[in-house]
């Protein structure tokens, strides 16, 4: 629905919410897909808050996947 309306903020929020659900279900690969989608949209919109939240969430997933090096690389994008 948000895509049909061209509502990028709605798309980003929906993708982030789906990512959180998949994280709770421990389906980290799907969660990453949705967080990365939300992150890209936040970048396009210049939404600094959305960028920060997605990078933090992605880094948490990388940590949960025992990929601490990936976590650090995502977190360095915050600076």
Descriptive report:
- This protein has about 80 residues and is an all-alpha fold.
- The chain has helices spanning about 1-5, 10-25, 30-45, 50-65, 70-75.
- The longest helix is centred in the middle third of the chain and has 18 residues, at about 30-45.
- The protein is flat.
- It starts with a helix and ends with a helix.
- The relative contact order is 0.14.
Q: Structural class, from secondary structure content?
A: mainly alpha
Mean pLDDT: 84
Structure summary, number of beta strands: 0
The residue ranges in which pLDDT falls below 50 over 5 or more consecutive positions are none
Helix fraction bin: over 70%
Principal-axes geometry comes out as flat
Largest sheet: none
How many DSSP helices? 5
What descriptive keywords fit this protein?
mainly alpha, 5 helices, 79 residues, flat
Note the topology:
Elements: H1 2-5, H2 8-24, H3 28-45, H4 48-64, H5 68-75
Helix pairs in contact: 2-3, 2-4, 3-4, 4-5
Concise summary:
The chain is mainly α. It has helices at 2-5, 8-24, 28-45, 48-64, 68-75.
């Amino acid at each position: 629905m948000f895509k049909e309306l061209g509502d990028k903020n709605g798309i980003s929020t929906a993708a982030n919410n789906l990512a959180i659900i998949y994280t709770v279900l421990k389906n980290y690969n799907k969660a990453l897909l949705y967080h990365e989608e939300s992150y890209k949209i936040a970048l396009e919109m210049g939404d600094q808050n959305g960028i920060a939240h997605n990078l933090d969430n992605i880094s948490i997933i990388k940590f949960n996947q025992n990929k601490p090096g990936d976590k650090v690389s995502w977190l360095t994008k915050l600076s």
